[in-house]
Every structure is written in C-alpha cells, then in structure tokens.
Amino acid sequence: MLHPSYSDLMSIVNKDVEEGETKIVNSRYSIVLATSKRARQIITRDGSTSDRAGDKPLSVAIEELYEGQFKIIAETAGEGDGAEAL
Q: 12 near 66, Cβ under 8 Å?
C-alpha cells in the first residue's frame, strides 16, 4: 500500500457514524494525533514493529488504521485537543 490519503483515512474512521451524528474525526490533525499515538505504542511495546521488520512505526500505524485494526475514540469536549488511539 502506498500512503492512503487523509480523506481515505477519515472516511474509514467515520464509516460507522450514522448521518446526523458527530463525526469521530473532523480534521487531518486528529488523524495525525491518533496515528502518532499508535506509533508510540508500537515503539514502547517491545521496540519492534511485530512481523513487519524494516517498516517504520508510523507507517505500521497508518496501515493498521487503514485496515481497521485499531479504532479512534473521540475525546469529549474539555478533556483534550484530539482523538485517542485504542
């Protein structure tokens, strides 16, 4: 896979949101925050990127998000400034 676009990632994250509800991700910034948090989790877990030797943690995090292997949980207002990776 060659770099999915932000709009592709946003549509995948928001695919389960019903019409009229607030979207989980409204901006590129939220995608960047979530994938960077997931990349840090990958790094701190064991220092490697599982079976994907040679791949950078951020690339793995983006691919995982694109494949739906982790979800983004929207923070409520006042708790923070972005989304959190699960």
A: yes
Residue 83 dihedral angles phi and psi, to the nearest 5°: -100, 165
Indicate the pTM of the whole model: 0.67
Q: What is the pLDDT of residues 14-48, one digit of tens each?
A: 787 777 777 777 788 888 888 899 999 988 886 55
Concatenating the DSSP letter of every residue in 8-70 gives: HHHHHHTTTPPTTSPPS--SHHHHHHHHHHHHHHHHHHHSS-TT-TT--HHHHHHHHHHHTSS
